[in-house]
From TrEMBL:
Gene3D superfamilies: Phosphatidylinositol 3-kinase Catalytic Subunit, Chain A, domain 1, Pleckstrin-homology domain (PH domain)/Phosphotyrosine-binding domain (PTB). This is FERM domain containing kindlin 1. GO terms for molecular function: integrin binding. It holds the Pfam family Kindlin_2_N. Belongs to the kindlin family. It comes from Oreochromis niloticus (Nile tilapia).
């Protein structure tokens, strides 16, 4: 029977499940309510019916709609709740298993009712006392390292605070896994595989419960946006270590591509860090560089986002060389069918020709010889918006630069070969700045040159002059721990050990902090660094393609060849929007360029959040690091669903 209400309204029975403390069974209640009852009043009636204890963390969850009823002044009618609704009175904070960047898993109690953005900020405040752009991600969990941290005395899971600041803080790097365990974790990843993995990022503007995350679910905690602000070794030891760990595992599991020479360089740094970490002697902090020196070094680590406009440079600087080599090709020169089938091999085997090159502002001009440089150039390359890809092998004295130049219908490829390290460092630095619309008069040019030279020095596998090669027979090292399983199979243990030790001699004097920073720096220097891949279908196209999103640009990539088709820079973006009904992203750039695409490998909200997140970061400056404009972040990433 329906009971009449005072004002002629009707009442009905509402089903509410009450989740008690862990270990206690849930209780179900039937509450007789009316539509004008507000949520706060419903909670009060519920608490009066059940046992007296602390219910302050509980809130109502609407199961069918997958939403929290947190506006306690709203009525049941305003929420649209009727007799068929199933509500849960459940704790807002629940246990979660988090796999940290170092692959260690800890248990934390976190908010399941706050949006993920706020939940992650709370996690970061506990773990690092900082608000870096870390986020939560669904992804493969590596069972061999998924061990929660327990107190050795009582056997209970340790709190996050004691884990990070106790006797064994996670500020220290974790030991390398045995080769057999590493091999079980390793899976070769194609671009398509990487695109599928990137679909797992959680929506920052929705809560964990709204995204079907339950108690004790396992999530990855990872640095999401590859822009690292104000790293200070004096205060950010945990953050530096976790950045290093995320970089280390991305190398070991080949989540990011690198050459064999680079793999050995990373192995030597890991070996050095492992030696310093496992040393029985206490670390002498007096040997660490002064903070101002480290801050200067960190200028190499920062990825400075491009502004919409560049400052006017009043000085013209010329970069000339008389012995430069060029291999230039475009679709106009190569048969289209051959391009599709043999492009990498055809292009790398084409002969190089010597020309006289002049680099002025953001343009490269080349001439038949020096004498002809006073006249018209054979051709000019405008580098603004281009991709700069290193093609280097220090051991073989190969110093090449590949330029991917944007044109109306795609990208033209230009291969430039330098004679030596010094020439390569100057030209690559100039190309990198020119791609951002900056000239060699820009203040960071010399720093960029030094950064490239430092990177080349680390890649040099030969021992320093006057220093003998290490005696492998007397050294104890499990070399396969420091390289990916695929590289470990290519070399015998003794040979691999010798090559790692030779490379180690170039960085043996680095302190622990310096070594980790060098590793991060080298990680950032890889061509694929920071690029997240997604499978999309561009409007008007009949095939799926790969879209790469980095901190400053978007790259359209042919799925069959893995080669870039064209690049669009965020600095040239005028506006973008999402049609949430058909799940299509539309972006408008300068010069009347408009693209539209739908996402195949993930929800378009994932891609929208990456674009909006990087645009948001481009508005931040160093003096804004301690305050975060959360409202602006959600405006740029939240969408209008």
């Amino acid at each position: 029977m329906v009971t009449p209400a005072k004002y002629g309204e009707t009442s009905w029975q509402l089903s509410v499940q009450v989740d008690q403390k862990e270990g206690d069974e849930s209780m179900k209640f039937k509450m007789r309510v009316m539509g004008d009852l507000h949520i706060g009043g419903l909670m009060l009636k519920l608490v009066e019916k059940i046992s007296k204890c602390d219910w302050s963390d509980h809130a109502l969850w609407w199961e069918q709609r997958k939403c929290w009823l947190l506006r306690t002044h709203w009525t049941l009618d305003k929420y649209g709740i009727q007799a068929d609704a199933e509500l849960r009175y459940t704790p807002q904070h629940k246990p979660l298993l988090l796999q940290l960047p170092n692959m260690k898993t800890i248990q934390m109690t976190v908010s399941f009712s706050n949006v993920v953005f706020k939940t992650v900020i709370d996690i970061c405040r506990i773990l690092t006392n900082h608000q870096p752009f870390i986020s939560l991600k669904l992804g493969p969990m590596y069972s061999k390292t998924m061990k929660a941290t327990y107190d050795p005395e009582n056997g209970m899971p340790m709190s996050a605070t004691s884990v990070w600041f106790g006797e064994n803080p996670l500020a220290e790097s974790q030991a390398n896994l045995p080769p057999a365990e590493l091999a079980k974790m390793y899976q070769p990843l194609s671009l398509v595989d990487k695109a599928v993995n990137n679909a797992g990022w959680l929506d920052s503007s929705r809560s964990l419960m709204e995204q079907d995350i339950q108690d004790y679910d396992k999530l990855l905690l990872r640095f999401k946006y590859n822009v690292f602000f104000d790293i200070n070794p004096k205060y950010d030891g945990v953050r530096i270590t976790q950045l290093y760990e995320q970089a280390r595992w991305s190398i070991l599991l080949e989540e990011i591509d690198c050459t064999e020479e680079e793999m050995l360089m990373f192995a030597s740094l890991q070996y050095h860090i492992c030696k310093l970490t496992m040393s029985t002697e206490p670390l002498n902090n007096s040997n660490e560089p002064e903070i101002d020196e480290i801050e200067a070094a960190l200028s190499n680590l920062e990825v400075t986002l491009e502004a919409g406009h560049t400052d006017k440079i009043l000085v013209n600087i010329f970069l000339k060389t008389k012995c430069f080599h060029l291999c230039c090709s475009s679709e106009a020169e190569v048969d289209r069918q051959a391009l599709a089938n043999c492009m990498p091999k055809r292009l790398t085997l084409r002969p190089y020709k010597e020309y006289w090159f002049v680099f002025k502002d953001t343009t490269i001009s080349y001439y038949k010889n020096k004498e002809a440089s006073s006249g018209e150039p054979i051709e000019q390359f405008h580098l603004r918006g281009c991709e700069v890809v290193p093609d280097v092998n220090v051991t073989e004295k190969k110093f090449g630069i590949k330029l991917l130049l944007p044109v109306a219908d795609g990208m033209n490829e230009v291969y430039i070969r330098c004679d030596n390290e010094t020439q390569y460092a100057k030209w690559k630095a100039a190309c990198v700045l020119a791609s951002k619309g900056k000239t060699m008069a820009y203040s960071s040019y010399k720093t960029e040159v030094k950064h490239i030279q430092s990177f080349l020095q680390m890649k040099n596998l030969a021992p320093p002059p006057g220093q003998a090669a290490p005696d492998v027979e007397t050294m104890e090292m499990n070399a396969e721990c420091f390289v990916s399983p695929r590289y470990a199979k290519k070399h015998k243990t003794k040979q691999l050990t010798a090559r790692i030790l030779e490379a180690h001699q170039n960085i043996a004097q680095l302190s622990l902090v310096e070594a980790k920073m060098r590793f991060i720096q080298a990680w950032q220097s890889l061509p694929e660094f920071g690029i997240k891949y997604y499978i999309v279908r561009f409007k008007g196209s009949k095939k799926d393609e790969i879209l790469g999103i980095s901190y400053n640009r978007m790259i359209r990539i042919d799925m069959s060849t893995g080669l870039p088709v064209t690049t669009w820079r965020f600095a040239n973006m005028k506006q973008w929007n999402v049609n949430w009904e058909i799940r299509q992203v539309t972006i408008e750039f300068d010069q009347s360029v408009t693209i539209a695409f739908s996402c195949v490998s993930c929800d378009c909200k994932v891609v929208h959040e990456f674009i909006g997140g990087y645009i948001f970061l481009s508005t931040r400056s160093k003096d804004q690091n301690e305050t975060l404009d959360e409202e602006m972040f959600h405006k740029l990433t939240g969408g209008q669903e």
